[in-house]
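Minimal example, chain plus zinc ion.
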Amino acid sequence: MSLQELYNKHCSQGNKYSYGTSGFRMHNSVLDTVMFSTGIVVVLRSLYLKSQYVGVMITASHNPPQDNGVKIVEPHGEMLVQDWEPIATQLANAAATSFQEFESTLHSIAKKLDIDLATDERANVVVARDSRESGPRLLAALKAGISVFSNTNVVDFGLLTTPQLHFLTHILNSEEPGSAVDESQYYSYFLSKWDQLAELYHLESLPFHLTIDCANGVGAEKAQRLIQLAKPLLQKSLSTTNGQTDKPELLNESCGADFVKTNQFFPANCTPEPGQLYCSFDGDADRVVFYYCDSSAEKKFHLLDGDKIAILLAKLLAKLLQDAQLTAALSVGVVQTAYANGSSTKYIQETLQIPVSCTKTGVKHLHHEAVSKYDIGIYFEANGHGTAVFSPKFHSLVEESLATTQEKSESQIKALKSLQLFSQLINQTVGDAISDMLAVIAALCIMKLTPEQWDSWYQDLPNRLTKAIVPDRSVFVSTNAERQLVSPEGLQAKIDAIVAQYPQGRSFVRASGTEDAVRIYAEADTTENAVELSSRVAELLK
Ligand code: NG1
Ligand code: ZN
């Protein structure tokens, strides 16, 4: 088909698109145009990077089933570099204007990038999607965009979690060209790291059963596959719930990480028992939060969110560094956003004496800070999206130390081996619910912690996260890692005046990057105060 015929088949006019925090994300019915243009951008990106594989994930994560979206993944699993985001936006909007506009924009982008549109250089693309019903249709539109070029190779992995796509994109670019890469490499890699840790610590059983709420999404099939492939030690202590991937309308419905974090309550189809641990993935399994119930008569719900996961990993990794005698040589830091509970920040800084950075919302910002500032950078959004990244200096020092073991104590060697295994068990490309889950289980086993003990280190300040629909969210401009507004003028001063009336009060307002809304966060000493503070700030927006 000609460019014009392909365009006519997949594009429609009138919508406005923006490549945001998590790529393009909207109601599925308006996404065909964007899929088509993104197919072209991905090919350009691969050609620009000398035919390396570039990844594309079709997902709308924790959003409702009727939404969908697309994001581009760099050859080694990072998110699309920031200076290509405007290119993706520009081409999508040109496609939504007219064929003439689209064609001329495509030529001008190619010219700027110095890419010959008629090249016979090979472009390599790797695609996957979550379990949404609109996925196959949108994938076809994406492939149509890719087919505009004559020499393309598309590796289609079908259904994957977002982190699996990131991981396999990296593997495809790391292996010899032509080697077969398949999904099973993901499971064998992470399970082998977990098994090695279990062996190092002589683990014989897990001190709890872990039930995984899979949000009725793609994570269900993947978690079940992981359990099937695991050795009995892990296998007998894990099970899944909300695994109805075949009923797309149930995706994220009364279950999943976002539901649990927002409602601070158990998901559907989960009958909690004291002493056991539970976790929830989101729709594309790049987020995870944990929880448990206490032994009171009402079986009270307790959340172990991204803040608590960051602290668990920070505490363990800092202790291992100490035992490995590397504390002076390697830095550890935690990266959070303004949504982190104030108690967690205080605990990390004051009790753990570990530095904390605060960045804008969106893992790309946290990732960048973690990589550029620390040798071990642990970053998590409160909603459970995050990972820990290890610097090249970390890897070389640990490797060097392990190469000369004769003058080292047994505990030092054990700590060094543990550090190395954790740096592999934790997905280095992106936050990953499955890999984070395995790291949390390993950390709890090694530190001999029950869920209650993990939870007891500090108490979250009561908080509320709500949203408000405003006529134009673009007027809400933030500064200071989104903790203060510079526009609309005068609003921040009014927020500050209200916040000052509440002990331990903190509140901020920012425009969402993924929804047409502004978010209001408030925390204070008591639940009543947090709720009151939140509604008084919300009043200001009316
Ligand atoms: P926005 O809509 O910009 O607040 C939300 C989450 C982010 C991140 C992105 C991407 C909150 C408060 N915000 O961003 O943490 O996960 O979605 O999915 O949870
Ligand atoms: Zn997600």
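The pocket of NG1 (ligand 1) is lined by residues 21-22, 61, 339, 361-362, 381, 383, 385, 512-515, 519 (CB under 6 Å). The mean pLDDT is 96.
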